[in-house]
Amino acid sequence: MPNKFLIVVMQVAFMVSLAAAEEPAAKLDPQRSFGYLEDICKLGPRPSASVGMTKQQELLDTHFTKLGAQVSLQEFDTPHPLKGTPVRMKNLIVSWHPQAKERVLLCCHYDTRPFPDRDKSNPQGIFVGANDGGSGVALFMEMGHSLPAIQPTFGVDMVFFDGEEFLFQRDGGKYFLGSEYFAQQYRDRPPPHRYVCGVLVDMIGDKNLKIRREPNSLKYAPKVNRSVFETARRLGIKEFVPLPMKQEINDDHISLNEVARIPTIDLIDFDYPAWHTTKDLPSECSGDSLAKVGRVLLEWLQHVPEDVGR
Ligand SMILES: [Zn+2]
Question: 136 CA to middle of ligand 1, Å?
Fold first, then answer.
């Protein structure tokens, strides 16, 4: 009898250790991810310096502090594109394993476009940017549950860029204010740490998600691109399609590559019919898409090749 008991104990211990080994991936919960996306959209439109943006900053500060990360803001002023008066911009930085001097940058924009100007029937309507603005935030909120539990190759900073599209007209104007400022500061006032590489996510919540290789990412950060897509292939995540996109994308990764010299890729699904319309709602997105991108990134963070940035 004692022997049988011992076997049961050993079996239970083995099952517990298996569960522990699988924990980080298992913790990516599609439903919870989608819940975060809904919470963010319920705040309403979140353009730079708006009430919705302030509420979002509070929500993120509370969320990530509770999970054990360090949260800080990088602030600067920019002239309002119509009025010329100064507008306060705030990049929000969430640091995991802050003691690590070599770090990986995960980033997204968290402002929403002031108006859905591609909406044919209502170009001045309400724009909540579920996929365009919300999806990256929801993904990082979900990943925040797993980050304390994993052993990433490098320290990890999640950076939420402000002013990605503080634009009031359909054509013209300046995009990417937050990432440009972040990259200039990194170049001109180098911090004590170094970013080995970066991954930008943008519009990764589409319920029909297909992420292809983005040409600027292939040009600036081929090793980062290869290792991320290789991770997706290994995990069998078919939403990552290892073919190049037809068009190159100008996004927050450009100044990170050109100004900060951090090899950074853009994971983006630009084929999204609700783009810049009032229809960019949680109903066009899926928690499964968010969780799949999260699984790839969490796995990749634990196996980033040492020479990825060289
Ligand atoms: Zn946009």
Answer: 12
User: How large is the greatest C-alpha to C-alpha distance in the chain, in angstroms?
Assistant: 83
How many domains is the chain partitioned into structurally? 1
The whole-model pTM stands at 0.91
Alpha carbon of 298 to ligand 1 centroid (Å): 25
User: Ligand 1: distance of its center to the CA of 113 in Å?
Assistant: 6
pLDDT tens digit string along 136-172? 999 999 999 999 999 999 999 999 999 999 988 777 7
Residue 130 belongs to some domain of the structure: yes
How far away, in angstroms, is 265 Cα from ligand 1 center? 18
CATH of the domain at 121: 3.40.630.10
Bridge-based pairing state of the strands 194-202 and 155-161: unpaired
Rounded Cα distance between 271 and 273, Å, is 7
Q: Which pLDDT tens digit goes with each residue over 212-247? A: 999 999 999 999 999 999 999 999 999 999 999 999
What is the identity of the amino acid at 85? Answer: T
Determine the straight-line distance between the first and last CA of the chain, rounded to whole angstroms: 60
What does the pLDDT look like over 246-272, one tens digit per residue?
Answer: 999 999 999 999 999 999 999 999 999
pLDDT of residue 16: 46
Identify whether 69 is part of a domain. yes
Tell me which residue range forms the domain holding 252. 26-301
Rounded to 5 degrees, φ, ψ at 155 are -60, 160
- How far, in Å, is the centroid of ligand 1 from the Cα of 64? 25
pLDDT above 90: residue 7: no
Does some domain include residue 78? Answer: yes
Render pLDDT for 101-118 as a digit per residue (tens, 0 to 9).
Answer: 999 999 999 999 999 999
Is the residue at 306 inside a domain? Answer: no
Beta-strand relationship, 240-244 and 211-213: parallel
